Amino acid sequence: MRILRSKEHHAEPVALPEVSDSVTVGLRGAGWIPARVIERGPDALVIAITVPTGKLTPEQLETLKVEFVSARGRVRLRGTIASQDQASPEVITLSAPRSVEVLQEREYVRIKSARPVLVHSARDGTRIQSFTVDVSGGGLLLAGPDTLARGDEINFQLTLTPGVTPVSGTGRVVRIDSNGRRAVAFESISELDRRRLVRFIFECQRAERRRGLEGDDHG
User: Which residue, 55, 72, 106, sits at the end of a domain?
Assistant: First the structure.
């Protein structure tokens, strides 16, 4: 059902996050803290840390990492801190960003399935009932809501079978297609819920094959 790759190191260029995308910044002694891209150049990112941190130490600047979610998985970037305005210590400039690792890179079978899903936006706190267009063990394609922006983090509750506890977790919007549908990559989901989701996909595939065989017999 899936191909699971171990942690990989990459030296080749990767697609960088866009302006207004949410990212996290890894700081020694402070862990991973939320941030947002405010400027993007061909070889630099200007990032605003969105929680109070005060002036960063030289060690923190030297070891700083930026993490974001792409279609390939969770990407960590390193680079050179080109400047830090003394008046705005929460704003950093990452020059010559390069990918140092891709985490949780997985390929899953994806099936078309319309299932109810309750979406809770971490940005504005809204809760909206939507439904999936397709599902996989690594994410969802949602029909909406149109209030979700690329980079938004969500909490979700996906109902596979009525009356059964939903599959739940957190994810991030990594793409919006021309029809306004939101592609969500999982960021946090229990292994039990992931197994439940993969088993559901397998059962759907088996039922589809069964219907195909019955159609051939009648044909």
Answer: 106
100 and 119 inside one domain? no
pLDDT of res. 219? 56
pLDDT in tens, 155-195: 999 999 999 999 999 999 988 988 999 999 998 888 889 88
Give DSSP secondary structure letters for 93-162.
EEEEEEEEEEES-EEE-EEE---EEEEEETTT--EEEEEEEEEETTEEEE---TT--TT-EEEEEE-SST
| Domain encompassing residue 10 | 2-106
Q: How many Å apart are CA 92 and CA 191, to the nearest integer?
A: 36
* Domain limit, last residue, from 106, 121, 137: 106
Query: Three-state SS for 197?
Result: helix
Query: Is the same domain home to 131 and 63?
Result: no
If we measure between CA atoms, which residue out of 31, 29, 27 comes closest to residue 47?
Answer: 27
